[in-house]
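stage 2 :: seqdesign
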């Protein structure tokens, strides 16, 4: 496994979700949609993060998402690490929008630099070892709390976070049951990780 080509979100209404993501984030082929009514309650164990260059872009993306129907989980604001906020799309997916910069350097745009998939896992060290054995290289690791993988110029970046810690960052309860409603498309053979996140060959996923 050398790259993540896309993530597929399972949603009740693909047409409505497509309208939302096109309007709010102007997403490309990194995020695909598939119809599903698989039961899922509470926190689904992951977030998607749009990394941008400046606070003005954070505000522009969050404002567009809320106007398109997203719910605000954490209003945009400064923090120790930069500037960001969290919203929940109408389909239930949680999105972080963040910048490491606390000052604007130009006019606001809705351009983002990276799309990052953060998986909330029960045992970060065990999951890190699992993914290393499946071909990923660790870029950053902070004990049993956080791991970031070296994914180069891949369309989607990958990081692991303690499940409860990720839920706290997102501003929601860590409780949740049922499907993650997420499939990760890569160049690897299909597999499922220790926390039930499903990986499949990218060509097998469909974009609606």
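stage 2 :: out
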């Amino acid at each position: 496994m050398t790259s993540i080509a896309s993530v597929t979100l399972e949603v009740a209404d693909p047409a409505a979700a497509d309208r939302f993501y096109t309007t709010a984030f102007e997403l490309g082929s990194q995020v695909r949609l598939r119809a599903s009514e698989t039961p899922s309650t509470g926190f689904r164990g992951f977030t998607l993060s749009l990394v941008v260059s400046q606070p003005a872009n954070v505000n522009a993306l969050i404002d567009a998402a809320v106007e398109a129907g997203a719910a605000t989980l954490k209003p945009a604001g400064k923090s120790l690490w930069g500037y960001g906020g969290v919203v929940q799309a109408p389909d239930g997916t949680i999105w972080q929008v963040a910048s490491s910069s606390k000052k604007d350097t130009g006019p606001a745009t809705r351009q983002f630099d990276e799309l990052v998939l953060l998986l909330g896992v029960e045992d970060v060290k065990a999951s890190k070892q699992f993914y290393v054995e499946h071909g990923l290289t660790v870029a950053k690791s902070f004990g049993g709390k956080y791991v970031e993988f070296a994914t180069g110029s891949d369309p989607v970046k990958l990081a692991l976070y303690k499940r409860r810690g990720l839920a706290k960052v997102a501003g929601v309860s860590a409780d949740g049951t049922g499907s993650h409603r997420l499939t990760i498309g890569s160049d690897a053979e299909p597999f499922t990780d220790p926390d039930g996140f499903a990986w499949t060959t990218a060509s097998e996923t469909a974009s609606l």
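stage 3 :: structure notes
- Helices lie at 14-24, 55-67, 124-133, 163-170.
- The first strand starts at residue 4 and ends at 11.
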